[in-house]
Specification:
two-stranded antiparallel ribbon, 13 helices, 2 strands, single chain
Amino acid sequence: TDKKWLRMTYDKDEFIFGLAIETEFGKVRFLTYLEYLRNLEALSYMNQNVLHIYYQYKNYYDKVFMPKEEKELILNSLEELKTKKLFELVVGNDNYKESYEIIFRMVFSENNFTEDNYKMLLDHLFSNEESFMSIRKLILEMQVMTETEVSPNPEIQKGIERSRRVKQANQKQGTTYSDIVSSIVVGTGIHPNEIANMSVLLVYSIYYRIGQFQNYSTTTLFATVAEKVQIDSWNKHIDLFEEESNVIDKKEFDNKFGSMF
C-alpha cells in the first residue's frame, strides 16, 4: 500500500486480553511466551536503538588488537553512526533486517497472508520509515519490551554501565524463565503448557500479582504483632511499562563530576 500511515490508537490496558491489534496492514498478534523465549535474539535486535548499535560496535573495536592509528580511524568513523536514523541502519544491515523480518512474519501470521502478500508488506515496511517505526513500537510494547537506558556521551554511558554491573553483582542469581513459570504453577495451579501459550504481558502480570499478593499476606500478618507496618493493597497497580532512568545530560554530568576528570 502507498497510503500514508494511519497513526494507530490502542489502549495498553487492553493488552491483558491478548487480542490482536488492528492496523492498516492487518492484525498484529501477541507472541506467545514460548515464541518470545525462542526468538529473544531477533527481538533483542529489534529493541536496539541507534546508540545501542553505536556502542556495540565501539565496545567491539575498543577490545580488538590492531595498530593504534587504524583503530582511531575506525572509532572516529563510528561517530557518524550517531547521526543516522535507526531505519537507515536496519535497512542497510542484513542481520538486523533479517531479525525484523522474522518477527514481522510471526506477528502478522493471523492474517493468512500468501508469500506475495508478505513480500508486499515487507517491501513497504522496509521502504517507509513512518510505517516501520510505528509497527516496531507496537510490537515491542506488545511484548512489554523497553529500550535500556543509554547516553550519547561516552563518559556518562560508562557510568551507566558501571552502575548496572554493580547492581547485578549485588543481587543474587537473577530470576530465570523457569522460576517465573514454576512460581505461576505453584501460585495458581495453571499447567506450564497453558503458560507457554500466554502473552508475555499476561505471564508477567500473573507473576508480579502473585508476588504482590504474597507481600500483602505477609505484611498483614506482621501488622498483628508489630506497629507501623505499611500494608500495600494486594491489587495495587503494577506498571509493567515503567522505565527506570539514571541518564543525565552532559551539562548536569559536568556540574556533578567534571572536577574528577
